[in-house]
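[recover] target loaded
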């Protein structure tokens, strides 16, 4: 049993480690044309960063950390805005960033044009691109940066950009600075790295209530103790703990999980203690209903079951075997986290590992709350 608990603990660590692997994003200082007041760089850059932090979808690197790293490696922001994929990959490696955001300012007469690109470091592909343009003094760039950040975050998730104030440029994903055409190699690729609605994957811990019921098949013991046919046993209820991973793919999903159920039954003449561990794999259909991702499917599992009964006589058995069942539930995404409710049921015929006891017809179910990481 300790070995099985060790397996459960190891799986918890593995899933927890995967959940912690968030994508990192570095927002570089905005590049200004020559002659423009450099004092506007920090507030414009911070305003763009603010929207990525507000989205809670990425780990946003601190501006001072980025500046220090660039300085130590003798890189300049212009090295990255030039679109050199080799330099992007190099500096992205130093920053350990998945994405880099570069932004530039252009000025034509009294009109400012602020544009930004979100670039995947590994491939050099533009994941999202947005722009804002407005008449005014240089201070107008600060409010433009906040609006640009909102549009860029929305574009990175494949969503429509927020409604503008009526003074901005048109489309966020097809912007080109005045008198300048975008190179064909930088064509925006359709990508939705982190959708905030609809289908999403999740890794979570579970806690809830569980119940087990087992029926002896034939004589319960090879000797005279409890000889004869025992037809049923009491349903035993208790607490269920577990970890689970759900991965939607279009209309369908696959799942993996590990559940431990501890149950106790206290009778007038005897007490029953049971413990079951279920390792499962499932598949089925997932359907978003409003903000909730619902799912239902079938599952196969391998089950370990310990049963101790303490009364006028004491006996203990240890069974295991393949089972089958079903699962259904619903998850709600809260930024980078999710909360959900899940029901699982497994049944089958399991065998005593020592050969002392006869087989059991076994069933176990659990209703649990899921709390975890959405990605």
């Amino acid at each position: 049993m300790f070995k099985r608990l060790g397996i459960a603990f190891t799986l918890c660590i593995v899933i927890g480690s995967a959940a912690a692997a968030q994508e990192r994003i570095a927002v570089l200082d905005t590049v200004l044309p020559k002659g423009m007041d450099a004092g506007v760089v920090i507030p414009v850059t911070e305003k763009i960063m603010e929207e990525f932090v507000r989205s809670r979808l990425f780990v946003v690197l601190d501006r001072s950390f980025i500046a220090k790293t660039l300085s130590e490696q003798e890189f300049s922001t212009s090295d990255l805005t030039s679109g050199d994929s080799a330099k992007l990959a190099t500096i992205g490696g130093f920053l350990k960033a998945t994405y880099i955001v570069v932004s530039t300012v252009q000025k034509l007469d009294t009109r400012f044009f602020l544009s930004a690109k979100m670039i995947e470091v590994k491939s050099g592909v533009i994941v999202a691109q947005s722009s804002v343009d407005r008449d005014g003094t240089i201070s107008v760039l600060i409010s433009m940066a906040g609006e640009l950040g909102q549009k860029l975050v929305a574009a990175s998730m494949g969503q429509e950009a927020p409604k503008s104030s009526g003074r901005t440029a048109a489309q966020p994903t097809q912007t080109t600075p005045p008198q300048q055409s975008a190179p064909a190699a930088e064509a925006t690729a359709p990508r939705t790295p982190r959708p905030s609605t609809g289908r999403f994957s999740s890794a979570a811990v579970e806690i809830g209530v569980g119940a087990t019921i087992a029926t002896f098949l034939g004589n319960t013991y090879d000797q005279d103790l409890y000889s004869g046919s025992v037809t049923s046993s009491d349903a035993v209820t208790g607490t269920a703990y577990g970890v689970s991973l759900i991965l939607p793919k279009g209309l369908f999903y696959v799942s993996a999980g590990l559940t431990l159920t501890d149950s106790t039954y206290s009778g007038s003449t005897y007490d029953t203690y049971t413990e079951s561990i279920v390792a499962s794999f499932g598949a089925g259909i997932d359907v978003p209903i409003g903000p909730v991702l619902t799912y239902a499917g079938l599952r196969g599992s391998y089950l370990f079951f310990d049963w101790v009964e303490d009364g006028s006589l004491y006996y203990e058995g240890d069974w295991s075997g393949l089972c089958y069942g079903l699962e259904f539930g619903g998850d709600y995404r809260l930024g980078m986290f999710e909360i959900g409710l899940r029901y699982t049921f497994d049944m089958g015929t399991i065998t005593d590992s020592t050969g002392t006891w006869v087989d059991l017809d076994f069933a176990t179910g659990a209703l649990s709350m899921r709390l975890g990481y959405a990605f």
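[recover] notes: Residues 278 and 303 are 5 Å apart (CA to CA).
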